[in-house]
Structures are given as C-alpha cells and as structure tokens.
Amino acid sequence: MIYLILQQCCVKSVPFNINKCITNKYITMKFLFQTKPLILSSIFISLITIVSCSDDPEDPIVENEEEVITTLTYTLTPFKGGSPVVLSYRDLDGNGDGEPTITNGTLSAATTYTGALTLLNETESPAESITEEIEEEDADHQFFFSTTVSDLVVTYDDTDDDGNPVGLATSLTTGSVGSGTLTVTLKHQPNKSASGVAGGDMANAGGETDISVSFTITVE
Q1: Does residue 122 share a domain with residue 46?
Q2: Residues of 30-45 as b/e, b for ≥16 C-beta within 10 angstroms?
C-alpha cells in the first residue's frame, strides 16, 4: 500500500519532486502506525461482542413445578353444627423409609358436612402453605374425590377464574351406615375442559398427581 501511494505521488507530480514523495510517504506511514492500534482495538471489541452474544443462553422458560406436599388435612364440619371430623395425612420424609401418619374418621349417617382442605410443605421452616399456592394458581389445580362408601357424595364449592372447580372447599354428604375408603387426589395442570372433569371424574383429567391419599371412613 505504501509503495502504491509513493508510486502514484511520483507519477502524478509534474515535475517530479522526490522530497514531496518522501514527505507523503512519511505522513502515510505515520498515519498507519497511529491508527493501527485503534483499528485492532475495534476489531477485538467487535469479536468479544459477537462471542458474548452467541454465548448468551436463551431466556429460561419458567415452568409451573409440582409442589412438595408433606401434610394434607381434610376438615369436615357438620353443616347444622357439631364437632368437626379431621382427616389428616403427614409424611415428613417423602419417599424415605418412614411410614406416613394417617388419621381416619367416623361420620354420621344422612349428614351434610362442609369440607375444607389445607396442605403444607413441612420440610421448610416455617412450614410452607401449599394451600395458598393452589389458591394463587387455581387454574392449574383440581382435587378429585373417589370413594367406596355407599351413598357418600362430595361436591365442589369453589371455582377458579374460568368457572372450573378446584376442590379446596367442598360439601360432603353421607347416606346410610357403612364403611370404606375416601381417596383425595390433587392433579397438577389437569385438562379441566375434558369430558367429565368438571363433575369430578378424573379419568380424562390428565396432568400430574401432586398427592393422593386414602382415608378409611366409617359412617354410623
């Protein structure tokens, strides 16, 4: 490049002036040496920027993770008054060797109860209220109730913002005397629009099971 500049200068200058060519050569070389660090710095910064952008991870997708539930309590209070019946399940070691503590219950025949579910994660200190999380994310949760007790019926008393059932608040009605099991299942992200789901049928609900507990019930 320097040679070409010098050559052009010498050819175009009439008459030929060697001092002028030498002077122009000096200026050109000086300019190159002065600007070279700036050019290299610009290239280096550009490369760093490109690499940094290419290495940046994509924005993480926040998923609604399943809750850790150690404790479930189903409190049944007679609608016309009386002492509540408290069904409870507690398993502090999760999948560990310890057996969960389950409290079963006895209900009166031909009686309607107001049902309230509360859930905790007691691996945290203080215990974390899973009930509050379900209330905040009610569209992603639904409880299902199945029973082998004759004439025992559970109905939903609460809904999410879309008008679909949740199950934290329920009504439970007993019929004749008998005994059997009552299973409470919490589904995470069920398909609430699927056939039968709004009525409490879990067959088409899909989703993931957060917890499922069976209580022994005696109706007398």
Answers
A1: no
A2: eeeeeeeeeeeeeeee
Q: Are residues 148 and 97 both part of a single domain?
A: yes
In terms of domains, do 149 and 118 share one? yes
Distances (CA, A) of 115 to 33, 154, 174: 85, 9, 13
Give the separation between CA 110 and CA 101, rounded to whole angstroms. Answer: 29
Handedness of CA 155, 115, 112, 90 (dihedral sign): positive
Residue 100 burial by CB count (10 A; 0-12/13-18/19+): exposed, middle or buried? middle
pLDDT > 70? residue 6: no
Rounded to an integer, the average pLDDT of 100-112 is: 98
Residues 135 and 75 in one domain: yes
Nearest Cα to 143, choosing from 66, 211, 217, 75?
Answer: 211
User: Which value, in Å, is the radius of gyration of the alpha carbons in the chain?
Assistant: 38
Q: Are residues 76 and 180 in the same domain?
A: yes
How far apart CA 138 and CA 133 sit, in angstroms, is 8
Query: What are the pLDDT digits (tens) for 7-43?
Result: 444 444 445 454 544 445 444 444 444 554 555 555 5
User: Model confidence over 169-185: pLDDT tens digits?
Assistant: 999 999 999 999 999 99
Report CA 29 to chain centroid distance, whole Å: 63
User: So what's the pLDDT on residue 184?
Assistant: 98
Whether the per-residue pLDDT at 5 is higher than 70: the answer is no
**Number of domains the chain is built from:** 2
Q: Domain limits at 173?
A: 71-219
The answer to whether the CB of 131 falls within 8 A of the CB of 121 is: no
